[in-house]
Amino acid sequence: MRTLFFAAALAGTLLSGCSEAQTKNPEGKQEKSGKKKGKKGNKAADIAGLTQVGRMSGVPESSGLALTGEAGSFFTHGDDGTQPILYKISTTGKTLAQLDIPVKSHDWESITRDTNGHVYIGDVGNNNNDRQDLVIYRLNPSNVQQVQEIHLKYPDQQDFPPAKEERNFDCEATLWHAGKVYLFSKDRAQEQTSKVYAVPDQPGNYTAQQVTRLAIPGQVTDAALSPDGRRLVLLARQEMFVLEGNSFEDILKATPRQVSLKGAGQTEGAVFTDNNTLYISNEQGALYTYSF
Description:
- This protein is mainly beta.
- It has 3 helices and 21 strands.
- The chain has helices at 2-22, 27-41, 248-251; strands at 50-55, 65-67, 73-76, 85-90, 95-100, 110-113, 119-123, 135-140, 143-153, 170-177, 180-186, 193-200, 204-207, 209-215, 220-225, 231-236, 239-244, 257-260, 267-274, 277-282, 286-291.
- The chain starts with a helix and ends with a strand.
């Protein structure tokens, strides 16, 4: 009996150890575990202001959101490794149309739109910080065969890749504003700073202007500016950072306010539909609204 009791206790200890080890997997494994928990437990329902409004069934790993200029719809696209397709979706996630873009898709990470209807697709994902072919595609969705290219490099990057502690040249967030496309870096090295760069919104080859550095304790995955230009949201993984001011220049000097989105999955896309309503997409296909 004593032998049986010892064996049972040992088995229980081993099972407990395995369970604990599963929660301590590397970063990628943790995210997968988090996705499952968020979906199963519906933790997002407990986040004040956040409401799930739909699900995208036809979009592989939504990685950005932009307005289309038509009420009730957005543009979105897949993540690294997916086809160069723009998906037009409804506010509940239903696929309304697919636009095949005649370019390569190395690592599309963000999409933004100007006031004249042009969209800018940021092929600027740079997980290993070693890319020298960063490009933003500029096009009018009514004629996707005519694509213009904005090529860019960062003024402060000399090595490809740089040392691990300096790897802050990945970008998953772009934003058009007043004739420029702004890029917000994803700090893979320290998770402390998002560097803000800008390039003109016209085709060409540019060395990006470094505008400022923001104290963001996380990894930025998208950016959205409210229609009145007074609120900037920098989305991150299961959280967002809100900066406010009377002008874009003031916003970039503001202290970020951190808002937890724990349980909402790997949040990757964000866009405002009015000054107080933000739509958010995640890689698992969920579509949310957040009310300020």
